[in-house]
Amino acid sequence: MALVTITNVWKYYGKTVAVKDLNITCKDGEFVSVLGPSGCGKSSTLRMLAGLEHISAGDIRFGDTRVNDLEPKDRDIAMVFENYALYPHKTVYENMANPLRLRNESEDTIKKRIAFAAEMLEIEYLLQRKPMELSGGQKQRTAIGRAIVREPKLFLFDEPIAHLDAKLRARMRGELKIMQRRLGTTMIYVTHDQLEAMSMADRIAVMNNGVLQQFGTPQEIYNHPVNEWVAGFVGEPPMNFIDCDLIEEGGGFYAVHSAFKVAVPADQAAKLRGALKSSGVRMGIRPDQMAISLGQEGAAKGSIKITEPLGGDTLVDVDLKGAHHVLVKTDADFRGQMNNSCSLNFDTSRWHFFSKETGVAYF
Amino acid sequence: MSSRDAVVYKTPLSRIWTIFTVIFIAFYLLWTLLPLVIMTFSSFKDLLAAFQLPPVGAFSEIGLFFNFTPTTKHYYNLFVNLGFTTYFLNSIIAAGGSAIISVVLGSMCAYALSRYEFRGKSDLFFWIISTRMAPVVAVLVPLYAIFRGMDLIGTQAGLILAFTTFNLPFAIWILKGFFDNVPYAIEEASMVDGSTRFQAFRAILPLVAPGIGAFVILCILFAWNDFLFASIIGSGGAKTLPPATVELVQPQNIQWGSIMAAGVITTLPMMLLGLLIRRYLVTGLTMGAVRE
After folding, report:
1. Is A77 touching B (CB cutoff 8 A)?
2. Chain A nearest-CA residue for B206
């Protein structure tokens, strides 16, 4: 188990910058997820931690040890690869035994550790099979088994469940989280799926274009995104963004759009003062932070474009007056039809404002 | 998983094609097997019996061909009087030695070429195969001079070296293709598991076994069948089977029986080797370890 410190790390491939000045600290025993779209540098970061890629600049420390120049085998880490990377000619048992054999562990220890891991992953009955005879989920469990028998300082998971079907993925999310809590080993988990990151991690590092956008707990990321990009990336269905103007009138602030004019609560107004001078702001609000009603009594007027009943709740695509359309999540018994006029009330305690130019959040 | 075989429906054309294929294969078998059959039978025949042939077109008298008393005197003559035991061993040592050296060096070199990027890599790669472009005869005379200067003429070491210079480029080319097909992730997994680079290389060797199998066959075949190197560089101390067989053709006396027997003992080991190594050649490459 270890404290992992990434300090001012850069990664270049030729002239292309993959990771820019990255700083992350993972506490001992913490489950940290690195989240971002493909090409954001998250895998490069993981491979630098594993020692499979050189670190172009900066330092990575495990505890007090600087590991920049250590080979993968000397870092005491275990990694699970996106494509499993099992040894095709070895049985599941031998695949899991391999890291222990390389460390000259006794046959007794090997047997004991594999029995423990196999029991935890429920793959005891597969031990004598070869990877070819396994399903995707079983291969992935074997790969995880190979990682946990080592009892390493640090787990590195590179999108390990990305290739599984949706149902199995949902189940593995829970199992991985339980496994990590049970072992108590620091874990760095790379994924492009915000749901995985949100549901499993203690803290999430959101990356885009090689730059760390925000590092915090899932609640911080979800409720207080630092910029428009993070706000839009995290959350499903994604946050709605509406360009509007900010005006000061009679001592209060108002967000003004052709479809609405909504007063900004007093405690938020102070944070928005700087935005008054700019050419406008972008309001962000999540689909479940609005109330929709038929008729024109609400704050923002529009009409229903389409409704998507999902069983538990209903998604409504609303055309606001003046070109914007927003996605609203409402109850399953919402009875609106296409082209009905409707109106929205915003939950002004939970909305966000971003600078139109830089995308940085005011709050 | 669904069947890999494509569904084929019979049409009149495909039936004709099937018949044509069978006829073609029958002729092809006759063409390839008949010489071997004649050679094998003749090696067990007395010289007089070997030349008893039915008249042309008289197929009813074909039994004449099988009507003989088997004798092993040609084999006895080869191994006892003519020293073929030594030549046989020489052949094995030369072919096996060069195959082992070529596989060991070739796989390491192919691995490096497959996994590392460095300046001039493609030029180096082309240069390696270009050494195989000149015909053996073209380089034989200078090679002879060099080998004589190093006292390698007529020695096993010299012959192995000569075969290896010709087999190694081939090994590198064949094996690089196989290494290219092995996913990089398997070595990375191995290194994260705690192996050194060299151990990781060894960990993926089983995955290129079909390539190594194919190459060992080709390499041994080349060395085993080679006549030019064997007669010029190996002559004397390291004489192999092909030059030894040629010596049975003497101006006054062509020893047909012994030549046939020598042919059999030269062919047989290669056939056995082919059967033995066949299963490596048909083994799937990555066997589904990595999701493609």
Report:
1. yes
2. A89
The pLDDT of residue B3: 54
Whether the CB-CB separation of A10 and A21 falls below 8 Å is answered with yes
Number of structural domains chain B divides into: 2
Round to whole Å and give the CA distance between B128 and B124: 6
Mean pLDDT of chain A, nearest integer? 90
Do A132 and B194 count as a contact with CB atoms less than 8 A apart?
no
The secondary structure of residue A227, as a DSSP letter, is B
| Range of the structural domain that residue B40 is part of | 12-71
In a domain, B17, yes or no: yes
Same-domain pairing of B157 and B200: yes
Among residues B43, B71, B99, the one where a domain terminates is B71
CB-CB neighbors (< 8 A) of B192 in chain A:
50-52, 72-73, 77-79, 156
Question: Which residues from B are below 8 Å from A163, CB to CB?
Answer: 291
pLDDT tens digits, A76-104: 999 999 888 999 889 999 999 999 999 99
Residue B96 inside a domain? The answer is yes
Are B34 and B104 within one domain?
Answer: no
- What is the tens place of the pLDDT at every residue in A21-68? 999 999 999 999 999 999 899 999 999 999 999 999 999 999 999 999
Nearest CA in chain A to B291: A83
β-strand partners of A158? A190
Chain B residue closest in CA terms to A80: B189
Per the CB < 8 A criterion, the answer to whether A268 and A363 are in contact is yes
Quote ipTM for the complex: 0.83
B109 within a domain of the structure (yes/no): yes
Which stretches does DSSP call E strand in chain A? 4-13, 16-26, 31-35, 57-62, 65-66, 77-80, 154-158, 186-191, 203-208, 211-216, 240-249, 252-257, 260-264, 281-285, 290-294, 300-309, 313-320, 325-331, 341-346, 352-355
Q: Residue B109 above 90 pLDDT?
A: yes
Q: Are residues B21 and B123 both part of a single domain?
A: no
Chain B contacts to A (CB-CB under 8 A): 183, 185-186, 188-196, 199, 203, 206-207, 286-291
* Average pLDDT score over residue span A251-272: 86
In this complex, do A102 and B195 lie within 8 Å of one another by their Cβ atoms?
yes
Q: What is the pTM of this model?
A: 0.81
If asked whether residues B179 and B42 sit together in one domain, one would say no
User: Domain check: are B25 and B90 in the same one?
Assistant: no
Is B7 within a domain?
A: no
Is residue B54 located within the same domain as residue B96? no
Same-domain check for residues B211 and B231: yes
